[in-house]
């Protein structure tokens, strides 16, 4: 079996962000003072080969810690595709490929430790994505109490392993539209439901381009700036915000609320019919292309109402001024006629 040594390439940070979580926490409060590097690692392996990487632990606390290594697989949960872990489930898939020292790890205050993890990929490993986590708990996996796991800050390295072979990259957009916002102003949130129909995780990136009723580009928004991943055979939502400024609220009466909303509409002004066009690419060669469009209206009725009232008042004032001017002209003409009587009169 060939051996491949992995030394934490530069994508580890973005791999961590790929699932909307950097690390996991196990055990009690003592684990909160423990950090590790990398929070995630992504690599490719040919079936029958071996890979190796190093997890670095650091005890930031003032008390000695005793830790136990634990590994399991993870899948996409129903909550926005965020990883779901179950350390009590039987070991399977990549969790059975991982080899590391299971002896207790003792970390003195401010102490450091490197843990070598070996990935032995079977020759018959199915191609595509395989996902696991190597975590460190204050409770041994073989103890009476299995580690309690929650997504938060803590200690765990996510593994995103690509097994070479018949890797299928495919996806589709199952929904695209406005999921939050008001019809009278910005901000508006556009959400894309991205379904991965292949057997490897994908990191869709691209834009939402918004054009107005005159087909002029109003704004271009970047989708998935953190390069979050969608696991195979799962759906993940990606959202982008169209906003010009932060909307303010007021706790006053209806009159105060009206004028606050008027100010919000002016600072986040949009008017008329718009079209939002989604364009995403994903995959190793950006070969997975998806797109969608949606139309929507924005009608800032507070602004329209105020300016309509102002316009009506201006028109009434103009009419009044014109009438007064006409009366003045007529009166002046009549006064001139009275001061100049016709010739020949005595």
Enumerate the spans where pLDDT stays under 50 for 5 or more consecutive residues: 3-31, 147-154
Total discrete domains: 3
Largest sheet: 6 strands, mixed
Instruction: Provide mean pLDDT, rounded.
Output: 85
| Count of extended strands | 20
SSE inventory with pairings:
Elements lengths: L2 E3 L6 H6 L6 E3 L7 E4 L2 E6 L4 E10 L5 E12 L6 E3 L12 E2 L5 E3 L4 E9 L7 E10 L11 E3 L4 E8 L7 E12 L2 E12 L8 E7 L5 E7 L10 E9 L11 H14 L4 E11 L5 E11 L2 H39 L7
Parallel strand pairs: 1-5, 4-13
Antiparallel strand pairs: 2-12, 3-5, 5-10, 6-7, 6-9, 6-11, 8-10, 11-13, 14-15, 15-18, 16-17, 16-19, 19-20
Helix pairs in contact: 2-3
Short description:
The protein is an alpha+beta fold and 346 residues long. It contains 3 helices and 20 strands. It folds into 3 domains: 3-163, Immunoglobulin-like, CATH 2.60.40; 171-299, Sandwich (Immunoglobulin-like), CATH 2.60.40; 306-334.
Could you explain the architecture of this structure?
With 346 residues, the protein is an alpha+beta fold. The chain folds into 3 domains: 3-163, Immunoglobulins (Immunoglobulin-like, Sandwich); 171-299, Immunoglobulin-like (Sandwich); 306-334. The protein is built from 3 helices and 20 strands.
Keywords:
five-stranded mixed β-sheet, 3 domains, elongated, six-stranded mixed β-sheet, 346 residues, Immunoglobulin-like, disordered N terminus, alpha+beta
């Amino acid at each position: 079996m060939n051996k491949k040594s992995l030394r934490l390439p530069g994508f580890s940070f973005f791999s961590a962000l790929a699932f909307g979580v950097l690390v996991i926490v196990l055990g009690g409060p003592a684990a909160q003072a423990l950090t590790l590097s990398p929070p995630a690692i992504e690599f490719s392996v040919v079936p029958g080969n071996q890979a190796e990487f190093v997890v670095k632990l650091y005890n930031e606390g003032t008390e000695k810690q005793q830790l136990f290594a634990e590994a399991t697989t993870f899948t996409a949960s129903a909550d926005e595709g965020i990883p779901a872990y179950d350390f009590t489930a039987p070991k399977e898939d990549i969790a059975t490929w991982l080899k590391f020292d299971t002896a207790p790890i003792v970390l003195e205050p401010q102490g450091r430790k490197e843990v070598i993890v070996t990935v032995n990929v079977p020759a018959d490993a199915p191609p595509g994505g395989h996902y696991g986590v190597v975590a460190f708990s204050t409770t041994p996996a073989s103890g009476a109490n299995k580690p309690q796991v929650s997504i938060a800050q803590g200690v765990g390295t996510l593994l995103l392993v690509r097994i070479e072979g018949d890797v299928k990259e495919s996806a589709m957009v199952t929904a695209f539209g406005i999921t939050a916002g008001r019809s009278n102003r910005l901000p508006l949130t556009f959400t894309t439901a991205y379904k991965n129909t292949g057997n490897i995780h994908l990191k869709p990136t691209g834009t939402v381009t918004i054009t107005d009723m005159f087909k002029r580009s109003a704004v271009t928004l970047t989708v998935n700036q953190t390069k979050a991943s969608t696991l195979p055979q799962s759906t993940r939502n990606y959202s982008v915000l169209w906003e010009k400024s932060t909307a303010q609220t007021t706790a006053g009466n209806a009159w105060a609320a009206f004028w606050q909303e008027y100010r919000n509409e002016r600072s986040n002004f949009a008017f008329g019919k718009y079209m939002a066009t989604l364009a995403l690419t994903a995959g190793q060669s950006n070969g997975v292309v998806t797109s969608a469009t949606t139309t929507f209206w924005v009608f800032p009725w507070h602004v329209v109402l105020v300016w309509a009232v102002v316009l009506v008042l201006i028109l009434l004032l103009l009419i009044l001024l014109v009438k007064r001017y006409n009366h003045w002209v007529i009166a002046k003409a009549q006064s001139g006629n009275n001061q100049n009587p016709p010739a020949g009169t005595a």
